[in-house]
Amino acid sequence: MRIEDGRYFLSNRLWDEHGEFVPDQKKGVERPPFEKGFSEDANLINLPDPHEVELKKSNFFKIIEERRSRRKFTDESISLNELSYLLWITQGVQKVIKNYVTLRTVPSAGARHPFETYIHPRKVSDLDNGIYRYLPVEHKLVEEQKGDFTDKIIDGANGQRFVGECAVTFIWTVLPYRTEWRYDVLSHKMIAMDAGHLMQNLYLGCESLGLGTCAIGAYSGKRMDNAVNVDGKDEFVIYMAPVGHLKRKV
User: Fold this and answer.
1) pLDDT digits (tens, 9 = 90+) for 177-189
2) What single string gives the DSSP state of each residue in the chain?
3) Which residues contact 211 (CB under 8 A, 6 or more apart)?
4) Does residue 4 have a pLDDT over 60?
5) Are residues 235 and 142 in the same domain?
6) Does residue 158 fall inside a structural domain?
7) Is residue 37 part of a domain?
8) d(CA 68, CA 65)
């Protein structure tokens, strides 16, 4: 919140004369888009059907019991099928209703789904290194940047090497306005809850594949925003997680 000329602002939107914040939805402002756009000449990567992945575990009780944070990974690649499955279970769109809301594999307050999913595939079969963004409506990837960003991610994760030295690093950004459009000053709470939903699905999905992951809250927001090329204001990194094959105890 900030004050300019005696007026209170939240996320650049004005409080009314009664001191109450009126969400843009109530003002009749058109809802923000489901996902960020992409150019016509963008490099799009088709993803396999997530339902075709081969699970290592299917007993839900065992998956819940054995879910843990994992920090030691091998240098083995994961398949594009496995990546497709993990992207889909964390943000996949199951249905678009009247071009108004999306029903996804995770809940979100008011079906606002304020996140964008970026990945750095260091060891994913049939996928070059770079920064990619998941397109949940199309179930595709769009290439955002080319190259190896391992060192940038490790630096952004405050030197935690396992965050970058894994098969793929998931990096979620949030666009707060998607939620603020409906929930005004309650949005920070809704966004925090929604972030937990998608991370838990990643944990359970990794466990079902025999892979490991670890929720990362210790990172430099500025350096990670720079790594995925977002402005740090209207969109900024909110959560990270490395994914990879587990080192077996000898």
Assistant:
1) 999 999 887 899 9
2) -EEETTEEEETTEEB-TTS-B--HHHHTPPPPPSS----TT--EEE---GGG---S---HHHHHHH------B-SPPBPHHHHHHHHHHHH-EEEEETTTEEEESS--GGG---EEEEEEESSBTT--SEEEEEETTTTEEEEEEES--HHHHHHHTTT-HHHHSSSEEEEEEE-THHHHHHHGGGHHHHHHHHHHHHHHHHHHHHHHHTEEE--B--S-HHHHHHHHT--SSSSEEEEEEEEEEBPPP-
3) 78, 82, 167, 243, 244, 245, 246
4) no
5) yes
6) yes
7) no
8) 9
Checking if the pLDDT of 50 tops 80, the result is yes
The verdict on 131 and 167 lying in the same domain is yes
Write out pLDDT tens, residues 146-161.
Answer: 999 999 999 999 999 9
Cα gap 142→132, rounded to integer Å: 6
In a domain, 36, yes or no: no
Q: How many CB atoms lie within 10 A of CB 159?
A: 10
Which residue type does 70 have? R
pLDDT band per the 50, 70, 90 thresholds, residue 249: low
CATH number at residue 77: 3.40.109.10
Same domain, 132 and 19: no
Asked if 133 and 17 sit in the same domain, the reply is no
Q: Are residues 97 and 141 in the same domain?
A: yes
Domain assignment of residue 21, given as a range: 1-30
